[in-house]
């Protein structure tokens, strides 16, 4: 199987879906001529033209509102939000309009819209361009939230999102755009709400999201050298969340660590850990552990920024202590 970058996987997913369905268009800042700051969309405007790949003014609330209206009236827009940090600017259109329209219309209206954006620190982009804000939208009923962890997940989840009749927010880790992974040339879709067990284990369960999946895989390698068998799970989507797979793994291993790049307080780690504690309490030998980003604005200083996000070594050490009964 060929290996391609996450960036190319996203580009392929959008192109394939736009060829399939003329109702799909893409809108956002610098999406046509510049191909976005990360060059993910390069080449799309040459194939589909400026009527379907639409550059907008720097007005996130404006173009998000346009997309919501277009989705309600028969189109299937993909909104490109340059940085996930800008999601604060579109929260009314996303959370009060797109998320609630189907419910408030008694099922008569739908909003088949995809908001694709990014997350992740350690890119030296400072406090206003380095946040991981997926927990904010996961809190809102009516929205689905996907977190691809590699090029394979990025393409399969995005194609599923584009075909969904509900509003979907998909977060890509901006540090992973050049990371390669095996991706089939033939068409495939990945179902929402179905986690992937990436590595079987019997001593501890590591649940990671987005880039933290790769951190957990590296931590599992470190643990294997110590004779500790770690099971690694990628939820792929946090809304809907595959609770059965995660809880089933925790019951099997009797220990669990949840790792996410969002801030730890009131975040994704808390929700997943709570579900494990609710459903697997009597199977656990130790309390569920959570590892998230430090609850501070992301620093610009590289030395400080690198301290804010969980590393494979930190996850492995937490797992060792968990297995030794020190936690």
From TrEMBL:
<dbReference type="GO" id="GO:0016491">
    <property type="term" value="F:oxidoreductase activity"/>
</dbReference>
<dbReference type="Pfam" id="PF02780">
    <property type="entry name" value="Transketolase_C"/>
</dbReference>
<protein>
    <submittedName>
        <fullName>Pyruvate dehydrogenase E1 component beta subunit</fullName>
    </submittedName>
</protein>
<feature type="domain" description="Transketolase-like pyrimidine-binding">
    <location>
        <begin position="4"/>
        <end position="179"/>
    </location>
</feature>
<keyword id="KW-0670">Pyruvate</keyword>
<keyword id="KW-0786">Thiamine pyrophosphate</keyword>
<dbReference type="Pfam" id="PF02779">
    <property type="entry name" value="Transket_pyr"/>
</dbReference>
<dbReference type="InterPro" id="IPR033248">
    <property type="entry name" value="Transketolase_C"/>
</dbReference>
<dbReference type="InterPro" id="IPR009014">
    <property type="entry name" value="Transketo_C/PFOR_II"/>
</dbReference>
<keyword id="KW-0560">Oxidoreductase</keyword>
<dbReference type="InterPro" id="IPR005475">
    <property type="entry name" value="Transketolase-like_Pyr-bd"/>
</dbReference>
<dbReference type="InterPro" id="IPR029061">
    <property type="entry name" value="THDP-binding"/>
</dbReference>
